[in-house]
């Protein structure tokens, strides 16, 4: 029969062995990495012929103050990967107002932009099982017309 001190010593060696091997066991191969590019190369929010944001592919959140009485907004988006699927979702605090995919030409018109605050999210999703997905958020504020 072995003493409890002997078992303690074996557990210590086992733990040290596991710690020594852990870096080798945690390595993964590159096949687990994302396929395709979900980032956008172009994102514009146009009101009355003026682009309202200074787009940079590594910036994922923007704020836009719309002129009072804005009725429609043109949104243009282009993915870095030409095969990427681009979609959008416009909502206010209550419910989604508009959603869908961008057409191949990469331009949509939002005909109903609510007064007050709303959020437009533009998604880029690369095709494939492991395709990268990226979301760009535009916080829009339009002054509410007070009676």
End-to-end CA span: 91 Å
Q: Low-confidence segments, ≥5 residues, pLDDT <50?
A: 28-33
**Per CATH, what is the topology?**
Immunoglobulin-like
Return the domain count: 1
Overall mean confidence score, pLDDT: 80
CATH architecture: Sandwich
What is the CATH top level name?
Mainly Beta
The whole-angstrom Rg is 25 Å
Helix content: 10-25%
Oligomer kind:
single chain
Largest pleated sheet: 5 strands, mixed
The strand line-up of the biggest sheet is: 3-9-8-5-6
Describe the model:
The structure is a single chain. The strands form two sheets. This protein has a five-stranded mixed β-sheet with strand order 3-9-8-5-6, with no helix packed on it. It has one helix spanning 4-25; strands at residues 40-47, 50-51, 61-65, 73-79, 85-91, 96-101, 107-110, 116-125, 133-142. The N and C termini lie far apart (91 Å). The protein has a single domain (40-142), classed as Immunoglobulin-like, CATH 2.60.40. Mean pLDDT is 80; it is low at 28-33. The relative contact order is 0.22. It has 147 residues and is mostly beta strands. It is globular. Helix content is 15%, strand content 40%.
């Amino acid at each position: 029969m072995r003493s409890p001190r002997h078992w303690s010593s074996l557990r210590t060696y086992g733990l040290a062995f596991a710690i020594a091997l852990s870096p080798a066991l945690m390595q993964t191969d590159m096949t687990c990495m994302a396929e395709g590019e979900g980032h956008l190369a172009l994102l514009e929010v146009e009101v009355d012929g003026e682009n309202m944001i200074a787009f940079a592919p590594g910036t994922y959140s923007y704020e836009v103050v719309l002129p009072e009485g804005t009725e429609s907004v043109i949104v243009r988006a282009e993915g870095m990967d030409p095969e990427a699927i681009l979609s959008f979702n416009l909502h206010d605090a209550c419910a989604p107002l508009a959603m869908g995919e961008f057409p191949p030409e990469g331009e949509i018109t939002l005909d109903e932009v609510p007064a007050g605050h709303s959020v437009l999210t533009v998604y880029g999703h690369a095709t494939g099982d492991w395709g990268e997905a990226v979301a760009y958020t535009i916080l829009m504020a339009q002054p509410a017309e007070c009676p």
